Amino acid sequence: MLAPIMLSIAVLQEQERDAARLEILATIESSARRGAEMVRGVMAFARGIEGPRVAVAITEVVGELGKIIRETFPRNIQIEERFGPGLWTLQADPTQLHQVLLNLCLNARDAMPDGGRLTINAENVRIGAEHAASNVEARVGPHVRVEVRDTGTGIPRDILNRIFDPFFTTKELGKGTGLGLATSLAIVKGHGGFIRAENTPDGGTSVQFYLPAGTRQSAPVSTSAVAEWPKGTGETVLVVDDEAPIRALTKRSLEAHGYRVLLAADGSEAVALYAQHKTDIAVALVDMMMPVMDGPATILALHRMNPALRIVGVSGLTTYDAGARSAGVRHFLAKPYTTGTLLQALHETLREQP
After folding, report:
1. Residues of the chain where predicted confidence (pLDDT) is lower than 70
2. What angle, 0 to 180 degrees and rounded to 10, lies between the N-to-C axes of helices 94-110 and 58-72?
3. Last residue of a domain, which of 184, 217, 250?
4. Residue-by-residue DSSP string for 148-207
5. Rounded to an integer, what distance in angstroms lies between the CA atom of residue 337 and that of residue 108?
6. Any domain includes 143
7. Are residues 60 and 208 in the same domain?
8. In angstroms, rounded to a whole number, what is the distance separating the alpha carbons of residues 66 and 322?
9. Residues 210, 273: one domain?
């Protein structure tokens, strides 16, 4: 569902010169990419699979989320970000942290139907033995504390200790699942941290979560440099996908970057096309989930015709990665992919020795 959006953005960006419109396209791309990462994260979370832990600067996560909510939240909600000096680096899954913050911000938004102020604070704290002793989940050592504060209606005292329970919600039927805060709690705990909620003196709510941190200061990430996408030199790519929008947009993107393209809607059509154009096709891009003949079966059939054929497997489910590799595929693309990741995967595949 998100793959055509990601591919369409690249096509529009190439044709656009207006800075304001390019910024809007960049926001759409960032949101679509984060949405795809969240879907993969939720699926992995449901299966009990821990997401990748990398060095994360909380300023980058908050900054990206702040840009999205400023453009999507009601205009009568003022949004402010505050960062303490020299914030420490976290070892975390950035997509899961984004989800925690998004859940808290959505709750803050819903608590201010008539507008107000939403503030995201981040600062370094050192938890001492006394604090850890009075909080069962706390650990002694350096942490980054992140707070989402609103000036909304507050939380009644009699339910304050229940807001993190699964399926508990005070929202009207159909307006909340009761899983947002429960999921946030599980993610924070999974990162070795803890979370607290309290009412503020001005009548709003403050939700704070603490994550263990290294004491190395987060280095700012430069986004000014734009990578040059590798181009083809006339090679023919066989694109096999049952979704017509993905086929059409992939064809347009590849042809704009120096490739020739043949399209197949399923595995049987791909095998027939390969039999006709065997000497021309340099690489096949094969979706793993298709009717008639699925990806793994298509790959086996193509490799029976030419064991040296280079193939890139594609799927929205990473569980197909192992199946593709067992069928002899060296490169795998997770949907939704961007034009840049597609071109890079094809470039690396074609450079390899068969």
Report:
1. 1-11, 13-16, 24-25, 27, 31-52, 166-180, 216-227, 317-327, 353-354
2. 40
3. 217
4. EEE-S----GGGGGGTTSTT---SPTTS--S-HHHHHHHHHHHTT-EEEEEE-TTS-EEE
5. 32
6. yes
7. yes
8. 36
9. no
pLDDT recorded at residue 49: 45
Tokens of 253: 């993107």
> Taking a C-beta distance cutoff of 8 angstroms, is the pair 98, 38 a contact?
yes
> Domain containing 285: what range?
236-351
Q: Note the pLDDT of residue 53.
A: 79
Q: Write down the pLDDT at residue 77.
A: 96
**Interstrand relation of 281-287 and 310-315 (parallel, antiparallel or unpaired):** parallel
Q: What is the pLDDT of residue 162?
A: 74
Distance CA 132, CA 212 (A): 13
Distance CA 50, CA 282 (A): 37
Peptide bond into 336 cis (omega under 30): yes
Give me the pLDDT at residue 173, please: 46
